[in-house]
Amino acid sequence: xxxxxxxxxxxxxxxxxxxxxxxxxxxxxxxxxxxxxxxxxxxxxxxxxxxxxxxxxxxxxxxxxxxxxxxxxxxxxxxxxxxxxxxxxxxxxxxxxxxxxxxxxxxxxxxxxxxxxxxxxxxxxxxxxxxxxxxxxxxxxxxxxxxxxxxxxxxxxxxxxxxxxxxxxxxxxxxxxxxxxxxxxxxxxxxxxxxxxxxxxxxxxxxxxxxxxxxxxxxxxxxxxxxxxxxxxxxxxxxxxxxxxxxxxxxxxxxxxxxxxxx
Length: 263
Fold this sequence. Notes:
This protein is of the alpha+beta class. Helices cover about 35% and strands about 25% of the residues. It contains 10 helices and 11 strands.
């Protein structure tokens, strides 16, 4: 089991920056700790909390102590996280990973690579990203994408907080054509995993198959960082809430890998 993104100290820092409190719950029997995130309800003496994808068994007596301390009236476990994802084994060679992809995905990567005169790819470390204009450019791309797909667009403050909290444990893969950003992906890293996160593209980028190439470049960067698993961080799991995920679930499945279901 890899360390999930939500159980890293960087994610805890991010959550604190956007108004949540964090507590560690410890299981002394297994020497395992996990983060629980708490949000006080406005104008009320109560809170809600999130405990998502913990590593190992939970000591529920410790959870009860936190619930009592913060007067938590609802504990969210997996309701806001997809119960299914895809893992790609980064210990395999690039040749093997390409072989395990669906033919269309493999073709799209090759097509995009042949557009090198039109398509420029940059990999930018989070510590550099936070000091550049790329944050605002990438946010604009994300908002255009969210509007097109009619999904939630991340507030600027939240994205900036992620970049700030993760620093060199996050990176962006950005594709430009004729000096304009046409596609991009943002990835965050735990101790042994790389997590697919935000993405966006415009029509020009999609015609050049830039979104597919950005993911492939992200996978290769994760391999260079000696990580073990690339986690697509959620696919459609059959729930009504995630029904709109069916389209990009097909996109993610094109890269191969193993489907993982969380209990």
